[in-house]
Amino acid sequence: MNEIKFEVYRSITKKETPLCFHRRAELDETNRTLECAECGAILDPFQFCLTMALEERSVQMNVTRLKNELKKLSEEYETLSKTVKYLKRKSRVG
Ligand SMILES: [Zn+2]
User: Fold this and answer.
1) Separation of 2 CA from ligand 1 center, angstroms?
2) Would 18 be classed as within a structural domain?
């Protein structure tokens, strides 16, 4: 039985680092890869896009939550402000 061996030649010389947590990436047009702009790790393009999308969703949820909290606090401030005005008027009259 003949054995056929395949050898993989890669032009990529940078190390593949699965534990890269940086957030900036660059496209390497020569090697057609996505690389971390900080440490040079070769990144999985789909995973990088998914991570960025999930982080964006989380940021948007926080923005929505903070807007709702701001609205609630503004309404409470308005109520308290009216109460203070009422009490000031009442204290002048009485
Ligand atoms: Zn990195």
Assistant:
1) 43
2) no
